[in-house]
Amino acid sequence: MSRARIGTTNMQKTRPSRMGELAAIMRAIHQTADDEPKILADPIAPRLVDVGGGDDDELGPLLHHPFAKQWRAGFLIRNRYAEDCLAEGVARGIRQHAILGAGLDTFAFRQPTWAKPIRIYEVDHPATQRWKRDQLAAAAIAVPENLAFVPMDFERDSLAESLRKNGFDLGAQTFFSWLGVTQYLSQGAIAQTLEFVLAFPRGSEIVFSFILPFATVSGLEGDALAKAADQSKQVGEPWLSTFNPEDLAALLRAMGFSIVVHMTPADAQERYLKHRRDGMQARRGEQLMRAIV
Q1: What is the CATH number of the domain that holds 182?
Q2: In total, how many domains does the chain have?
């Protein structure tokens, strides 16, 4: 299998991506600021991040932007959708879950009963994983037995070899999640990772997020998207790739995925936000794709 780059080249080496930290802060805020039922019940995120710590020159403009609530909904929906798809995969026999660019993902630490039979692999830069494990230890959060941390230098290491060294079965049906990452990579690097997934047995799948071209997103969300890209660049994490959904879906089919599902904003609204009273709405600038081998 080919070498695949799944992280940012300019990621800070002593702590997780600041934009990745933003996702965890948004999940933490949701637990107290938004109505029931929760889009994503995540009791772990508030124990890993300082919500007030996001009120700085880097994240403050994003957390307090007028579009922040819709933005928060997007962060929540992408994790919820990936976990819902994983549950379907486990029901049909998948027993491996790889979280690519895991950052402060908390699924393994709040996993439901149906996830206990599967093996979970968090893939990320060694420095990010050390920071996360320190946060977990400080919060007295135990590492579950079915979780393996896979440290990987994305600029030098092989994804296949890094996984294999940590007990991953390269010949088994696998579910991959890849959230909040593709905008930081070149389209060539994205294609490499998708080709890596395609090498797995039929029934394996990947759920990933992507950013739409800026010119196609207007108004308040367009302003929020531009600010996010600018803040990301300022912290050394520039955005490199955006996709038109129709073009991306066509690319996935041409690559050989047997089923491609585009989660549109309308789909997200109907599935996760219908009848909510807290004003949360689906965002358009970041969307989700599900591709099954």
Answers
A1: 3.40.50.150
A2: 1
Indicate the helix (H) or strand (E) that contains 267.
Answer: helix 265-268
In this structure, is residue 10 part of a structural domain?
no
pLDDT digits (tens, 9 = 90+) for 50-70: 887 656 667 777 788 888 898
Is residue 175 a part of any domain in this protein? Answer: yes
Kindly give, in sequence order, each residue whose CB lies less than 8 Å from that of residue 223, ignoring residues fewer than 6 positions away: 65, 67
Q: Residue 273's pLDDT band (boundaries 50, 70, 90)? A: very high
Q: Is position 38 within any domain?
A: yes
50 burial class (0-12, 13-18, 19+ CB within 10 angstroms)? exposed
Helix or strand (DSSP H, E) at 175: strand 175-178
12 falls within a domain:
no
d(CA 153, CA 219): 38
CA distance 5 to 269: 32
Alpha-carbon span 26 to 214, nearest angstrom:
22
At a CB cut-off of 8 Å and minimum separation 6, what does 239 contact? 183, 184, 211, 229, 232, 233
Q: Report the predicted TM-score, pTM, of the whole model to 2 decimal places.
A: 0.92
Domain encompassing residue 25: 18-292
Q: For the range 29-34, what are the long-range contacts, defined as Cβ-Cβ under 8 Å and sequence gap of 24 or more?
A: 29/63, 29/72, 30/72, 30/76, 34/69, 34/72, 34/278, 34/280
Question: What confidence tens digit (pLDDT) does each residue in 151-163 have?
Answer: 998 778 889 999 9
